[in-house]
Design goal:
The chain is of the alpha+beta class and about 180 residues long. It has one domain (about 1-160). Helix content is about 30%, strand content about 30%. It has four helices and ten strands; from the N terminus they run H-H-E-E-E-E-E-E-H-E-E-E-E-H.
């Protein structure tokens, strides 16, 4: 009987001892990288590289930047923003305050955007701007306009992790890279 009571107590305490998002979704997210044309090399600010189309596992709670390069095309850099997911309210209900704090502190309650990171590269000297695309290949905006909308938050996140110079002003250039 004591074992049954102990087992029930452990099961009941489980949600309060850990975050629901940490258990269910984990702290990492598989990010897809695509380009038009395919075959671009991508390099993440924190390290990691692959050739599009490709996928890299990234921490949900960390902002980043990815740079696309392909011979004959202008390089393009896209900010990747860690955003709080709307499911956090359910986490507080199901996992209590402790679960919410756990998931908030380790980034499990966040998602990375855009996902996929899909861009249309532009030929060198064309005078056009790289475009951010949705999953179906439709234009969302130019990379420069998207970057400008999230720049302050992402640059601060990169600086906190030592991936961007602390004294450098934020730039909306599509080819800006953290040092």
């Amino acid at each position: 009987m004591k074992r049954l009571i102990l087992a029930c107590a452990i099961i009941m305490a489980g949600p309060a001892l850990g975050g629901c998002a940490t258990v269910i979704r984990g702290v990492n997210q598989d990010m897809q990288f695509q380009s038009d044309p395919a075959g671009a090399t991508i390099r993440l600010a924190q390290g990691g590289t692959c050739v599009t189309p490709c996928e890299i596992e990234m921490r949900r709670g960390h902002d980043s930047m990815v740079t696309y390069t392909l011979e004959g095309y202008e390089p393009a850099s896209v900010y990747i923003q860690s955003r709080l997911d709307g499911a956090i309210a359910g986490n507080f209900i199901a996992g209590g305050i402790i679960g919410g704090i756990v998931d908030g502190s380790n980034g499990a309650s966040n998602n990375l955007y855009p996902d996929p990171v899909y861009i249309r590269l532009v030929p060198v000297g064309s005078g056009r701007e790289a475009e951010l695309l949705d999953r179906q290949g439709q234009v969302i905006s130019t990379v420069a306009v998207y970057n400008a909308s999230v720049e302050g938050d992402v640059i601060n996140g990169l600086r906190r992790r030592g991936l961007a110079p602390a004294s450098a002003p934020a730039s909306t250039s599509t080819s800006a890279q953290p040092r």
